[in-house]
Amino acid sequence: MPSPRTELRTLKRLLAEADSILSTTKLPENRAERCRELLRSALAVTDDLANQAKMPAAAILGQRGGSQTAKRGSEYFRQLAAMRKTRGGGRPRKAE
């Protein structure tokens, strides 16, 4: 089974070939130009997906995780640990 990266490269090649075919075609009401615009957008999305495939999802999520932990502060995690020790339930209620 081919990797997702290989599949994305194949999709990119197919889109590029369709774009080159449409570049030589003249359709009424500028339909060929609109199709080429859509194909260029699809190529851009494919490039983005290929670049994201290089980086594991955990690394992408990990970039945000530390800032959220810092917002909560150490007292929040002390409360969670205390409730686990006493079997006091889940997360503390939000302070309003």
How would you summarize this macromolecular structure in one to three sentences?
Helix content is 77%, strand content 0%. It is mainly alpha-helical.
Write the layout of secondary structure elements.
Blueprint: H1 4-23, H2 31-54, H3 57-86
Helix pairs in contact: 1-2
Walk me through this protein's architecture.
With 96 residues, the protein is mostly helical. The chain has 2 domains: 4-54; 65-91, no CATH class. Helices cover 77% and strands 0% of the residues. The chain has 3 helices and no strands. It has helices spanning 4-23, 31-54, 57-86. α1 packs antiparallel against α2. The protein is elongated. The termini are far apart. The model has no long low-confidence stretch (mean pLDDT 80).
Structural domain count: 2
| Termini separation | 52 Å
Proportion in helices: over 70%
Taking the sheet with the most strands, its summary is: none
Computed structural class? mainly alpha
- Helix tally equals 3
How many beta-strand elements? 0
Question: Which H/E pattern describes the elements?
Answer: HHH
Mean pLDDT: 80
Our Rg estimate from Cα atoms comes to: 25 Å
Taking pLDDT < 50 over at least 5 consecutive residues as the criterion, the unreliable ranges are none
Tell me the β content: under 5%
Gross morphology: elongated
